[in-house]
Each structure stands twice: as structure tokens, then as C-alpha cells.
Amino acid sequence: MNELKIAVVYGSVRENRSGIKAATYIVNELKKRGHHIMFIDPLEYPLPLLEKRYKEFEKGKALHVLDKLHTIFLESDAIVLVSAEYNHSIPPALSNMLDYFVEEFHYKPSAIVSYSSGNFGGVRAAVQLREMVAELGMPSIPKVLSIAKVQEVFDNDGNDLTKIYEDRTQKFIEELEWYAHAFKNHRGTHEKSV
């Protein structure tokens, strides 16, 4: 499989984040398959609450962090979103970051990794996130990698202590690869015709 450039976006800024282990896990698994990964942690890319989108800033007037995110998203072949579930929805840091951009996401597939400390694995957040990413022009692949009781599944290095997720993760990544290559092959054609 040819290398893809994949942005992995983690959505939580809470203290004692268990979900960072899930993000590390998916980054590790994507790297094992030979992909170039650009990891985005909102603690390392802090953004104020959205007042205007990136494209609305005059050239050279946007925050440096927005310039960096713009470049990462623009260069990506696919976006993997690692989301907790807060009150049946997605974390505000994730929503706020995504809302800054639009065209950077167009004609690129996304894939959702959802997680929670309970039994449902963040699926309610994944449902809402699926609607949001479709509106942003990066529809999600059919598979969702939902991780229940995330605090018990991974160690700090992102190793799956349970071995429960190995097979599901490989199928999830294979599906993402298929969509990413298909979109990549046709993205240039569409851009020329617009």
C-alpha cells in the first residue's frame, strides 16, 4: 500500500486524559502500515473560541497556529478524528478546531475513533461527528472504531492490553486506506473541473 499523509486529530484538553492513549494507539497502528502521520493535540495547538474562519483572515494576519493547521490539513490525504463523548456530544476543543476550516477538508475522507470510560465507546459522539464532517466536505468512512472503557484498554505507550481491538483496527485502517486512495486519485480531477 502506498504511503498516505494522514492527520490524526485528538479532541480532548481535559486533565488526566485517558483518551490520549487511544490516540497514541491509532497513530502507532497507522505508522506500522507505512503512513506519514501528523498528530494534532489541541493542547499543542491552542485556539481561541471561533470568531472567524481561517479563510476570513487577511493574508499573514492569522495566528501562527492556524497557519500550521491549515498546512497540515491541506497536505493531508485523510483525517482521523479521535473523539471522547461529552454529554452525548463531541468535545468542544475538537468542534472549535474543525470549525476554523472548510476547503482544507474537501474531498478527503475522515475516519472516527470514538471512546468513553463506559460501555458505549463514545458512539453517540461519533454519530454527531459523522454529520459534522460530512458538512465540512470530508465524509467519514462506514466503519467507526469505538473503544469502551478506554482507561483500561491501553497503556501510556498506546499498546492494546486486551488484544480486543487488533482485528477491528486493521479492518478500520484498511477501509480508510481504500477511501483515501480513491479520493486522492480523483481529487485533482474535480479541482480542475471546478
Produce a short descriptive summary.
By secondary structure, the protein is of the alpha/beta class. The protein has helices at residues 19-32, 64-75, 92-99, 123-135, 150-153, 166-193; strands at 5-10, 36-40, 78-83, 110-115, 140-147.
Tally of DSSP helical segments? 6
Shape: globular
Cα radius of gyration in angstroms: 16 Å
Helical proportion? 40-55%
Kindly give the count of domains. Answer: 1
Structure classification: alpha/beta
Mean pLDDT: 95
Percent strand: 15-25%
- What's the CATH topology label? Rossmann fold
Provide a descriptive summary of the structure in words.
The chain has 194 residues and is an alpha/beta fold. The chain has a single domain, classed as 3-Layer(aba) Sandwich (Rossmann fold), CATH 3.40.50. Helices cover 41% and strands 16% of the residues. The protein contains 6 helices and 5 strands. It has a 5-stranded parallel sheet with strand order 2-1-3-4-5, sandwiched between helices. It is globular and about 50 Å long. The model has no long low-confidence stretch (mean pLDDT 95).
Key phrases:
5 strands; 16% strand; Rossmann fold; alpha/beta; 194 residues; five-stranded parallel β-sheet; single chain
Helix-strand blueprint:
Blueprint: E1 5-10, H1 19-32, E2 36-40, H2 64-75, E3 78-83, H3 92-99, E4 110-115, H4 123-135, E5 140-147, H5 150-153, H6 166-193
Parallel strand pairs: 1-2, 1-3, 3-4, 4-5
